């Protein structure tokens, strides 16, 4: 079977390589010439454990090549971005998906299958993509097959989860569903769950919305507990000992191309019916502002001048900064002329990011941890010996040792910042 995968990002590239390493002929398409050149010379452009080794195998077997040009194939997989529109409810921008589908149409033949892996708003496949495909004169469900099959993987574990996770196969018709199942059965060991396209769309969106709402509850608990001088992290730990409670962990906000984006697609499709989802989004999107205030309050209390920001990605041990609240916090602090702000992230290669922890913390007054990279787990005062004062605000509760750290704060103990500030004012 020959497959064309359009979009070679965090999902499209691993998907293409997995098919290639299971005896399929795969052509990966991207509009970025540098990405195409890198892949064809055997170099991945994203950070994902095991992916380089998988690409090496695919290149060696000559089952994968990258290209700028669409080719005829048996199946086409669309895995391109779906950003938010700049409207009131940040609805789904389908322009990249539609562009990808339109690029397929000139080479589309009877018997072909088109799979949309991109996360899209409810009813997009049936209401937006189906008419495009049938504009060719080919009938979906008879001549060609159209499926929505959302990805359900965790960055850092994508290779394993592509194979072992259950997969929703949402066909426009039953025949489309069967065509999608035949394709993914090539390598997926998890259950292939049959669904309609619209049900598959909503299922993916609700999986991420559930987590977003749960995180919003935890973040609201942090704000309540800060006001009442209660340790929110202790509350969560104790509550989760109940057999039917699973509160998520709070943090500086929610990022990535799933949790920070997908709930808006539901809200925009049914604004009057989604007040809870919209409120959760508001709570999580204002967490960076809350963290900035806690940081500036602490800097005032300790008379600090320099902040070393640790971590810019939206989650730990990856290089992905899409929709990252950490980056938003960094930018806000950087804009404050009262402080010198330096970013340190061992996973990010950028001119403005310091690669040396020693240089980043030199003469700093505060380390602000915004990502739970494993490199930060055993952080202690010996690592921070060149700081002006060893104070840490750990918004991810990642530090395990805390040896010789003068003052250590996390989202359970931030009320102490307010108390210390109040005491300083009284003094």
UniProtKB/TrEMBL annotation:
GO terms for biological process: polysaccharide biosynthetic process. One of its GO terms (molecular function) is NAD binding. It comes from the Bacteria. The keyword Oxidoreductase applies. Residues 308-401 form the UDP-glucose/GDP-mannose dehydrogenase C-terminal domain. SUPFAM superfamilies: 6-phosphogluconate dehydrogenase C-terminal domain-like, NAD(P)-binding Rossmann-fold domains, UDP-glucose/GDP-mannose dehydrogenase C-terminal domain. The keyword Repeat does not apply. Signal peptide: none annotated. InterPro entries: 6-PGluconate_DH-like_C_sf, NAD(P)-bd_dom_sf, UDP-Glc/GDP-Man, UDP-Glc/GDP-Man_DH_C, UDP-Glc/GDP-Man_DH_C_sf, UDP-Glc/GDP-Man_DH_dimer, UDP-Glc/GDP-Man_DH_N, UDP_ManNAc/GlcNAc_DH. Keywords: NAD, Oxidoreductase. Belongs to the UDP-glucose/GDP-mannose dehydrogenase family. PANTHER family: UDP-N-ACETYL-D-MANNOSAMINE DEHYDROGENASE (PTHR43491:SF2). This is Nucleotide sugar dehydrogenase. It comes from Listeria booriae.
